Amino acid sequence: MIIRRYFDAPTWGWKSPFEELARMRRELDRVFEEVPRTWPVELPTGVFPLTNITEDKDNFYLRAELPGTKASDVDISITGNSISISGERKIIAEHKNVKYHRREREAGSFRRMIKLPAQIDTSKVEAKSSDGVLTVILPKAEIAKPKQIPIKVS
Amino acid sequence: MAEKETKDLQVKEKQAVATPAEQTRAGLVFTPAVDIFETDRELTLLADLPGVKKDGLTIDLDNNQLTIVGEVSPPEGSDEVVLLREYQTGRYFRQFALSDAIDQSKIEASLADGVLRLDLPKVEAAKPRKIAVKTG
């Protein structure tokens, strides 16, 4: 017993340093694989538009700030549990001879796909745009809703 | 679609700022993105204020200083659980110094789809005038 432990000591033996590094890498890979890929993803993905998603018992709510974008310029499509938002933000040049002092607002097209953690009842999805904020209400499919199971008392 | 290629929009983080005045109310303060352009007759200011309703918008003009404050109340219901948060909501705040060339009594403001439009007409004296030269 004592001898075996002596031989297994990390500093002992003819292992090359590279072999030791490879072992550490395998170990790290294993650790990272074990980290569960959990929802929610708290970090912004860097895709326009910035989106907030919330849920309650019955629905998911998706909100995105799209100031100056008309409802007709936004396309929303839903399949199963993913939603795709695409569109274009237009800024119309109003006059020909203008001098710009500030130009911070940007125009352009956007496309974003978001996967939701449960199935959606695609027939009941509602979308509205007010004050430059797009809100999409996505009702959860019946099978995805939490169910309370009463416990019978005998 | 259109013949000319449109640029893809890039994400711009909302800029949280410290305002010159101490805030007595809790909450985040953001700088709205603005466009300001000038023609011979007027100055136009466009500001992105998503989520600001007409009642939540205050435009003050004091000593040539134009202050825009837009209040945004959180749109989420009380029993909603956040799954993904990429932007925060709060107050929008921005101040501009106006020159004397602006006719302060004729400023007009309108708000549509989260964009504020301010039309700031110039005073008569500041408008360029062409003087016709008579030949005699």
Could you explain the architecture of this structure?
The complex is a heterodimer of chains A (154) and B (136). Chain A has two helices and eight strands. About 3% of the residues of chain A have low confidence. In chain A, the strands form two sheets. Chain A has a four-stranded antiparallel beta sheet with strand order 1-2-8-7, with no helix packed on it. In chain A, strands 3-4-6 form a three-stranded antiparallel beta sheet, with no helix packed on it. Chain A folds into two domains: 33 residues; 80 residues, Immunoglobulin-like (Sandwich), CATH 2.60.40.790. Chain A has 154 residues and is α+β, with helices and mostly antiparallel strands. Chain B contains no helices and ten strands. A five-stranded mixed beta sheet of chain B has the order 1-2-8-6-5, with no helix packed on it. In chain B, strands 3-4-10-9 form a four-stranded antiparallel beta sheet, with no helix packed on it. Chain B is elongated. Chain B is 0% helix and 39% strand. The mean pLDDT of chain B is 84. With 136 residues, chain B is mainly β. At the A-B interface, strand 1, strand 2, strand 5 and strand 6 of A face strand 3, strand 4 and strand 7 of B.
